[in-house]
Design a protein that fits this description.
Bound molecules: 3,4-dihydroxyphenylalanine
CATH topology of the largest domain: BirA Bifunctional Protein, domain 2
Distance between the termini: 90 Å
Largest sheet: 7 strands, mixed
Order of helices and strands: HHHHHEEHEHEEHEEEHEHHH
CATH superfamily of the largest domain: Bira Bifunctional Protein, Domain 2
Number of strands: 9
Low-confidence stretches: none
Strand content: 15-25%
CATH architecture of the largest domain: 2-Layer Sandwich
Helix content: 40-55%
Length: 343
């Protein structure tokens, strides 16, 4: 093969190899292979001395052309490869702001809180404020000052969690002691509600729990009557369950109210005809209430010949179960998000 042919062949094969180089390192290896000190082109040029005087400039010119072509193509390929590299880095390192973010799991308000907040709003709109009392309570407040003397069945050890042998300290069985605490400390007139936990020795079933919640209510002023009690509770029930909700005030007994009543709402399921939901009654019991007993007022230093008051106690779980059609009380406490997220 003549030197001319060798050069031409070198040009063909090297151009193919340069275009095929996959990365900068491979390309650099090719540059050394062809144009390096011991490279193929250099080796060919070293043999120029053996050429005839006429051939030497022709072959020399060709060799220069081949070197320039190779140099140019290697440079072009290098540019292409580094652009590609940059592109790859940019696409792998950039922040894609169009990608949807990781969803943040936000909890849901517990149905008890939903109902409590609704009730609070209704009472606050009627001028009530919120009062609080201790869950660990003195028996005097939980019972005696509420006209519930020794021997009353509610004081039985079977029904109540006592802390001390003399039964003087307990987990409150009702929110009613807050009535006494408020009457003893706040100036008249009084208009409060007091939501909170209460405890009783009940076995757990679909409608019972040893811990549940009540909302206590108390209004004391001059000239408060049973009419105020009915108006207040009807307002609550109608705002909670709808304007057409029918209520029934049924005589009952509580030691700390006289007269006392229980308030039922007409069954939302059957409209009072009797069904499974109301257990054939046509009515669903909602709360206990009454006019504060004069003995209770007097015990708190309030003159019962000048002042009168009404009080009520609502079961919060019962309200939530009615409001959301929950059939089993236990579901409310299990805190299973699959259940809670439905409300
Ligand atoms: N404390 C009563 C209970 O737990 C409920 C109750 C009834 C509260 C009548 C009252 C009331 O304030 O007047 O069963």
């Amino acid at each position: 093969m003549s030197m001319k042919e060798t050069l031409q062949q070198l040009r063909e094969s090297s151009l193919g190899a340069i275009t095929a180089a996959e990365n900068i390192d491979a390309l650099e290896a090719l540059r050394v292979k062809y144009l390096g000190k011991k490279g193929e082109l250099t080796t060919i040029l070293k043999q120029m001395g053996a050429l005839s005087a006429e051939d030497r400039p022709i072959v020399g010119q060709l060799a220069n052309e081949v070197r320039e072509t190779l140099t140019y193509n290697i440079e072009q390929r290098r540019k292409t490869l580094s652009e590609k590299l940059l592109e790859m880095r940019l696409s792998s390192e950039t922040l894609d702001i169009t990608m949807p973010g990781k969803p943040v799991e936000i909890g849901k308000k517990h149905p008890l809180n939903t109902v409590l907040d609704e009730a609070k709003d209704i009472f606050i709109s009627m001028g009530f404020t919120i009062a609080e009392g201790p869950e660990v309570e003195l028996s005097i407040y939980n019972f005696d000052k509420l006209n519930t003397q020794e021997g009353h069945p509610a004081r039985d050890r079977q029904d109540t969690f006592y802390f001390t042998d003399d039964d003087s300290l307990l987990l409150r069985t009702q929110t009613s002691p807050v009535q006494v605490r408020v009457m003893e400390t706040q100036p008249l007139p009084i208009r409060i509600i007091s939501p909170g936990r209460v405890y009783r020795k009940d076995e757990v079933d679909a409608t019972h729990s040893p811990m549940f919640h009540q909302i206590e209510g108390l209004v004391v002023d001059r000239g408060i009557t049973m009419g105020d009690l009915k108006g207040t509770l009807n307002t609550l029930v109608r705002q909670l369950y709808g304007e057409n909700t029918v209520t029934r005030f049924r005589p009952h007994h509580f030691p700390f109210t006289e007269p006392s009543c229980e308030v039922d709402v007409q069954c939302f399921e059957c409209g009072g005809r009797g069904c499974r939901v109301c257990k054939g009654e046509g009515w669903i019991e909602l709360l206990g209430a009454g006019m504060v007993h004069p003995k209770v007022l007097e015990g708190c230093g309030i003159d019962s010949s000048v002042y009168s008051g009404f009080a009520f106690g609502i079961g919060l779980e019962r309200m939530a179960m009615r409001r959301f059609n929950i059939s089993d009380l236990r579901l409310i406490y299990e805190n299973d998000v699959r259940f809670l997220s439905q409300f």
